Amino acid sequence: MRIIKAVMLTVSASVVTITSALAENLAITEADFNCMLDMQPVRGFYVDNLIEGKLQDTLAVAGAEQGAYPAGSVVQLVPGEVMVKHPAGFSPATKDWEFFELNVSAEGTEIGKRGFVDVVNRFGGNCFACHAQAKPEFDMICETNHGCEPIPLTREMTTLLQKTDPRCGGRYTPTPEEMELLKALTAQLSAASE
């Protein structure tokens, strides 16, 4: 019986150590957010994982379109917003997701806002309030059939924003029509922030 208790204590200590290590790996900084085209595309959004060796776990959930994302998962639709999954229990209200509003430029990324239930995006929407509408099996990930309110961007707009992420070093040159769309988007963002 003592041997079983000793083994259980050792296993418990190992789990605490692993959880602590995960939390330490998630000391998230601006340097963690770069050109989103370097992330893995999945059905119109991009994913990554901040914990080395865990990207395949994130891709497995994203590819299945349901299930709980592992700690370290990064999910991004447009350059200026991103969500990151923390270890279990970090923020039960948000299913451990932290929301970020980013200021992106050719020089890199600045974190404008970050938090759990209180981050409001450039369109005046609360990130958590929107993502909380996703059906439970989707782990707060919003896609067209997941239960979330639609965002004020078309699929073409989000794709263009992704391809023209200023942190990507001009990899993509927009067409004249896309330039007009970008101007309209900029005007829309300016009006929403006023």
List the helices and strands and how they pair.
Layout lengths: L1 H24 L14 E3 L2 E5 L5 H10 L8 E4 L4 E5 L11 E9 L2 E8 L11 H5 L23 H9 L12 H18 L1
Antiparallel strand pairs: 1-2, 2-3, 3-4, 4-5, 5-6
Describe this protein's structure.
The chain is α+β, with helices and mostly antiparallel strands and 194 residues long. The chain has one domain (28-193). It has five helices and six strands. It has helices at 2-25, 55-64, 127-131, 155-163, 176-193, and strands at 40-42, 45-49, 73-76, 81-85, 97-105, 108-115. The chain has a six-stranded antiparallel β-sheet with strand order 1-2-3-4-5-6, covered by helices on one side. The longest helix has 24 residues, at 2-25. The chain is globular and about 45 Å long. The model is unreliable at 1-24 (pLDDT under 50).
Average pLDDT level: 87
Low-confidence stretches: 1-24
Binned strand content: 15-25%
Radius of gyration: 19 Å
Number of domains: 1
| Elements, N to C (H/E) | HEEHEEEEHHH
Helical percentage? 25-40%
Number of strands: 6
- Coarse shape: globular
Query: Helix/strand-derived class?
Result: alpha+beta
Strand order of the largest sheet: 1-2-3-4-5-6
Distance between the termini: 67 Å
By DSSP (H or I, 4+ residues per run), the number of helices equals: 5
Question: How many strands, which pairing sense, and closed or not: the largest β-sheet?
Answer: 6 strands, antiparallel
